[in-house]
């Protein structure tokens, strides 16, 4: 899917470029798209979870040519997504109503192949096939211009096969609209505000960068980061904000690192957990340790695994990179 916020007004002569590598520069983009026409402006945005740009041309025809020539061009092994920035296109992307989620894909299927297939049912704005460590993850997002075209594609392609594998096609749901799994519900008590996050990417190594990651979910009361361990602790001012952060960040890929995010256990909960662990029989404990070791080797549990995350005790007040607002941590 694409992420478009009201930081850029619709323009007939512009394009939106997403799925960019973090190392890309505005000068590089200007040089790249100069082949499609006269580039008059480039706005590049680096975010913790994504990198995207807006490029303006002198003429709308040049913007259209840029989409035709550069959509799905690979940079650093990943396909960029180039779309027009007309009001119609931006509104379709923002609403998400014409966006489909396709799962069960063979790893040989790419964005171009899916774009050609789904274009049989209407105008496709973009297709994104997420990649992890250079390998497609087996699902994709197909964004149509019109809702009725997306609905027709979903209906007619149900139970179809692509490259010999049966796929499932669903209407895309935003993270906040997805039903919580039983495991996630167990992780969310009705009052918590403290959050633990681990497997932070190396790029998020300062307190300010950690705060930037959480600020879209609400006001942060206090936070700590331990860069060498790639972990952090965040206290939100409201329970609802903490829930949004856990749901929004757990299992999310940030700078190619899949983070784990859950509520931070209280001292009593940690003691209870340790007491329970100490009662395991030697064979059971060994098996459990092996299982945890196997799970932590990837360091990237899925969203549904939030309840099994057991963060260590928060660091002492002398820990590095600590932030507090005027009210302080509670």
TrEMBL record:
Keyword Cell cycle appears in the UniProt entry: no
InterPro entries xref list: Euk_RNA-bind_prot (IPR050502), Nucleotide-bd_a/b_plait_sf (IPR012677), RBD_domain_sf (IPR035979), RRM_dom (IPR000504)
GO molecular-function terms, A-Z: RNA binding
Superkingdom, taxonomy of origin: Eukaryota
Locations listed in the record: Cytoplasm; Nucleus
Occurrences of domain RRM (ranges): 13-87, 98-169, 193-258
Keyword Transferase set for record: no
Disordered as annotated region, ranges: 275-330
Keywords: Cytoplasm, Nucleus, Repeat, RNA-binding
Positions with biased composition (Basic and acidic residues): 278-289
Biased composition (Low complexity): 290-307
Main localization (coarse): cytoplasm
One Pfam family, short name: RRM_1
GO CC annotations on file: cytoplasm; nucleus; ribonucleoprotein complex
PANTHER family to which the protein is assigned, alphabetical: OS02G0815200 PROTEIN, RRM DOMAIN-CONTAINING PROTEIN
Protein name: RRM domain-containing protein
Organism: Trichomonas vaginalis (strain ATCC PRA-98 / G3)
């Amino acid at each position: 899917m694409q992420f478009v916020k009201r930081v850029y007004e619709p323009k007939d002569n512009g394009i939106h470029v997403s799925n960019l590598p973090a190392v890309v520069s505005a000068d590089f983009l200007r040089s790249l798209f100069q082949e499609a026409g006269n580039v008059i402006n480039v706005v590049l945005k680096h975010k913790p979870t994504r990198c995207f740009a807006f490029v303006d041309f002198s003429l709308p025809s040049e913007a259209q040519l840029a989409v035709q020539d550069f959509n799905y061009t690979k940079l650093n092994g990943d396909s960029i997504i180039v779309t027009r920035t007309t009001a119609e296109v931006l509104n379709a992307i923002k609403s998400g109503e014409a966006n489909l989620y396709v799962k069960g894909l063979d790893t040989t299927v790419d964005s171009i192949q899916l774009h050609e297939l789904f274009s049989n049912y209407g105008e496709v704005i973009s297709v994104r096939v997420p990649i992890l460590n250079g390998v497609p993850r087996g699902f994709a997002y197909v964004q149509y211009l019109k809702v009725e075209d997306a609905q027709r594609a979903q209906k007619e392609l149900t139970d179809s096969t692509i490259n010999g594998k049966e796929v499932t096609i669903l209407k895309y749901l935003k993270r906040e609209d997805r039903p919580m799994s039983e495991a996630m519900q167990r992780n969310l008590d009705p009052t918590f505000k403290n959050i633990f996050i681990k497997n932070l990417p190396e790029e998020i190594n300062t307190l300010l960068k950690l705060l930037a990651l959480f600020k879209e979910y609400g006001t942060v009361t206090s936070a700590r980061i331990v860069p060498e361990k790639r972990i952090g602790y965040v206290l939100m001012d409201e329970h609802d904000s903490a829930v949004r952060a856990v749901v929004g960040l757990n299992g999310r890929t940030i700078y190619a690192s899949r983070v784990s995010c859950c509520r931070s256990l209280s001292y009593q909960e940690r003691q209870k957990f340790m007491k329970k662990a100490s009662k395991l029989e030697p064979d059971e404990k060994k098996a459990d340790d092996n299982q945890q070791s196997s799970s932590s080797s990837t360091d990237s549990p899925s969203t549904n695994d939030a309840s099994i995350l057991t963060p260590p005790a928060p660091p002492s007040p002398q820990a590095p990179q600590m932030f507090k607002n005027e009210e302080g941590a509670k």
